[in-house]
Design a protein that fits this description.
heterodimer, A: alpha+beta, Alpha-Beta Plaits, 6 domains, seven-stranded mixed sheet, six-stranded antiparallel sheet, 27 helices, flat, B: mainly alpha, 2 helices
């Protein structure tokens, strides 16, 4: 056998020493592994060899799985319908399908099983719906059968958000479809009437066509226009005039007077205008809704079970039965089901679903892993630190949904403008009616309606939200979560950027460089005492001390200074030079460029520790970029060593303040803001929290504390400083598109409304113009989705 | 032209029948998967089971 042979099933090269062969239709076939051989045998034995002719791509290399736990009724509850037992209906997500031939293969293979009543695959959703006699064959056997031909079945579960989105989409599409069909019918009759106007038509037939139009357009009023009318009605009940008010008024006015014209056998009908208006508004809203939905789509499916480790035994359990502190096993290639900390094993993990970072990250004992990320090659045991609903990925989804529900202030002000605008147009319409009526013009009513139709508050109120959801979607994918969208316009007016140093500009992984001993303690003992005190703090400095042999009691943390606590009945202080000098005013620190931490008891200074930290590689390009934009950069650090100066010099930042307490940082910020500065604060520690809250724009790291993340405007999901540059770029693009949208809407209305008021525009043209204007705005915002960061 | 009095009601009937079918097809999930269903007709498969 030659090395170039490829496996008959998966088309991967066959190893030289392989001896897996099969004779198929007198032809010789080689296989790379027993699994592929078994699959091919199964496929041929079942007479399904058509698959090999009609498949579009080669098959995946098979993996064998164990499905026995899925027979557990509790686990089945979520994806199996049991209401006519013993016949059950299960929904399974099939992994590894890559063309419709695969779908065919699975369907056929399952239908050959005696217990199966029906198996049907929806290829687009990669979803199998199967009805079978559960008393004849358990579910696990069916899943095994699917696995035997090379696919991996999983329980199928729509997240609630996704299911709701799907239902909403369907409803909207049905509405658009019906409106479109009706619009064509009404339009056809309208052509007859228009031609009649030119070529002559008897009153009898004109009346017939008008009556027929009335019947065709009945569903338009009662079905297509329903969303606008009900929204306008809800608005009115809250004593608000929303943008649907004028549209509804125009639709009802046009429709009502057309009905009257049919009844009175005189005048024109405008059913075609109503139909067109409804159709185009529905389409514009549909596009807008789709772009909004994109933002909230969950990426991939989270596992529904986890393998719990119980004294050397493994048990597959639903997530609801796993509690904090349980140990779960994560196999190579598996998705991680819950947040946790690695307690044994070593592996690389892709966290793309969480922070958009595509590179795999190495995880060792003590590292955090997050649900939704994918394990690559190693076997891990993880201690669970968050239950399913508290997992980070669900938290992020929740944050996104919150934004959906509480609309930002920027949006409110836009809505207010749109509301005022709507009302003014309403007044203008009445004014033009009165004007033309007094002039004795027959068409006064149509003119007033044209004014209502042609004005386009939708374009005004769509300008911001469509652009916003598009830009948020892009930023989320490059690893930035915008928690408060109202900061986006502020980003373009920034004057000052303030950085914390430790953990922000630097890695925050501080290492002990040198220890000066001043007493009888040896280095080991000093480290133990220092570690026990520091273990109570979350400050990055604490990580430099990691001896766990002693335990400190009664610890008090003095923010920006240090920690005081009791170790082995002795009171100690560890912290800044000043903090130690409060006890020993004569203490003189050694001369060093590095950061200095002192350790003292009541009697004397015990030791000085020299610490240092390395600068993040992306910090320099970022500061260069920010300076090019003409921004003032500052470093405010709690650190008192010359490290601050060194960092500032390396990064070319001239304004730096070392040795700042939280209050000092706040004072500095206040001084800047009094001078009218718009500031962005980038920080990672709890001691930055007051400053982060005070700054107009706050940026926190994903690995900073939960509290900080809840209070920051922007979160860097992959802890990558350079993303700030992307953020500024996108903010600029957002501003640009927003201005274009707003400008367009203003220009359009400023030209169109006077035209309509002077009576030059028929309702049909008005409907066209208005829909066109909305669609321009929506499509312009969609451009942001495609924009590359530059 | 008299025929219009019959033809228009017929058109109306067919239009609404068509709308009804459209709504029915949406609700019976016929537009949910456009790829697999299109190929189903080309397959030589087993006769339907009882």
């Amino acid at each position: 056998m030659s090395q170039s042979a490829v496996c008959f099933h998966c088309e991967e090269p066959v190893p030289l020493d392989s001896h897996f062969q099969l004779s198929i239709n007198q032809q010789h076939a080689d296989f790379c592994c027993p699994a592929c051989l078994a699959i091919s045998e199964t496929i041929y034995a079942a007479g399904l060899d058509n698959y090999y002719q009609s498949r579009a791509q080669h098959a995946h290399k098979p993996e064998q799985h164990d499905f026995s736990h899925w027979d557990n009724a509790k686990l089945q509850k979520e994806f199996v319908d049991t209401h006519d037992e013993p016949i059950k209906t299960a929904h399974l997500y099939i992994e590894g399908m890559h063309c419709t031939a695969c779908a065919w293969l699975i369907e056929q293979h399952l239908q050959k099983q005696a217990a199966v009543i029906e198996a049907k695959i929806s290829y687009q959703e990669q979803k199998l719906t199967i009805r079978w006699h559960d008393d004849k064959l358990p579910l696990s056997q069916l899943m095994q059968a699917i696995n035997a031909i090379g696919y991996i079945p999983h329980p199928y579960q729509d997240s609630e958000i996704y299911a709701a989105q799907k239902a909403q989409n369907k409803k909207q599409l049905t509405r658009i479809g019906i409106t479109a069909i009706l619009m064509m019918q009404v339009g056809m009759l309208a052509i007859g009437l228009y031609l009649g106007d030119y070529l002559g038509i008897s009153d009898q037939y004109r009346q017939l066509l008008k009556t027929a139009s009335l019947f065709f357009s009945l569903p338009i009023l009662y079905f297509s226009a329903l969303p606008f009318i009900s929204s306008a009605y809800t608005g009115l009940k809250q004593r608000k005039i929303n943008m649907d008010f004028n549209i509804s008024l125009a639709i009802i006015g046009l429709y009502g007077s057309s009905v009257y014209s049919v009844y009175s056998k005189s005048g024109d009908i405008y059913f075609d205008s109503v139909a067109m208006l409804c159709l185009f508004i529905l389409i514009a809203r549909y596009i807008e809704m789709r772009s909004r939905q994109k933002l909230y789509q969950q990426q991939g499916l989270l596992p529904k079970t986890a393998t719990k480790v119980i004294d050397e035994h493994y048990q597959e359990l639903p997530l609801a039965e796993i509690v904090l502190g349980d140990f779960i096993l994560i196999k190579p290639g598996a998705d991680i089901a819950l947040d946790g900390r690695v307690v044994s094993g070593y592996s690389s993990i892709s966290e793309a679903a969480i922070n958009g970072e595509s590179r795999a990250i190495n995880k060792k004992i003590g590292d955090e892993v997050y649900a939704g990320s994918q394990n690559h090659d190693g076997l891990l045991t993880v201690e669970v630190t968050a239950t399913a609903e508290h997992c980070l990925i669900n938290k992020i989804a929740e944050l996104c949904n919150q934004q959906e529900s509480d609309k930002s202030q920027a949006q409110n002000s836009v809505n207010r403008i749109a509301s005022i605008f709507t009302f003014s147009v309403f007044l203008l319409a009445i004014a033009s009616y009165v004007f033309w009526f007094l002039k004795g013009h027959d068409e006064a009513f149509w003119i007033a309606l044209s004014v209502l139709v042609i004005s386009c508050p939708c374009a005004l109120s769509l300008a911001a939200p469509t652009a916003l959801s598009a830009v948020q979607y892009r930023l989320r994918h490059s690893g930035l979560l915008i928690r408060s969208p109202e900061v986006l316009p502020l980003l373009n007016q920034l004057t000052d950027v303030i950085f914390d140093k430790t953990g922000t500009l630097t890695h925050g992984q501080i290492q002990l460089q040198h220890t000066h001993t001043l007493s009888h303690f040896n280095k080991q003992e000093l480290l133990a005492i220092a570690s026990s005190l520091e273990s109570t703090s979350q400050h990055p400095i604490a990580k430099a001390f990691n001896d766990k042999s002693l335990l400190a009691q009664d610890c008090n943390i003095f923010t920006g200074l240090g920690i005081e606590g009791t170790v082995k009945q002795q009171r100690y202080r560890i912290g800044s030079v000043e903090f130690c000098q409060q006890w020993h005013s004569g203490a003189t620190p050694p001369d060093t460029p590095h950061m200095l931490i002192g350790l003292a008891d009541k009697q004397q200074m015990i030791a000085w520790f020299e610490l240092s930290d390395s600068i993040r590689p992306e910090a320099l390009p970022l500061t260069k970029y920010l300076k090019k934009l003409g921004l003032q950069l500052h470093i405010l650090s709690g650190d008192s060593s010359d490290d601050v100066k060194q960092t500032a010099n390396t990064l070319g930042i001239s304004n730096f303040h070392k040795h700042c307490s939280s209050q000092d940082k706040l004072d500095q910020l206040n001084r800047l803001q009094e001078k009218g500065a718009i500031t962005m604060m980038v920080g990672d520690g709890i001691n930055d929290a007051p400053v982060l809250r005070k700054a107009q724009v706050s940026v926190a790291f994903f690995n900073s504390s939960q509290w900080l993340k809840n209070n920051a405007d922007i979160i860097l999901l992959n802890n990558d400083l350079s993303k700030i540059q992307d953020c500024l770029n996108y903010a600029k693009a957002y501003q640009r598109v927003y201005r274009q949208n707003f400008g367009w809407a203003l220009l359009y209305n400023a030209i169109a409304i006077p035209f309509a008021m002077s009576g030059w525009v028929t309702p049909l043209i008005a409907a066209l113009g208005m829909s066109f204007s909305s669609i321009v705005v929506v499509l312009n915002s969609q451009r942001l989705l495609k924009k590359k960061s530059d | 032209m008299q025929s219009l009095y019959i033809l228009l009601p017929i058109a109306l009937f067919f239009c609404f029948a068509g709308l009804g079918l459209f709504v029915w097809s949406m609700n019976s999930k016929q537009f949910d998967d456009l790829e697999r269903e299109a190929q189903r007709i080309l397959e030589i498969d087993t006769p339907p089971r009882d």
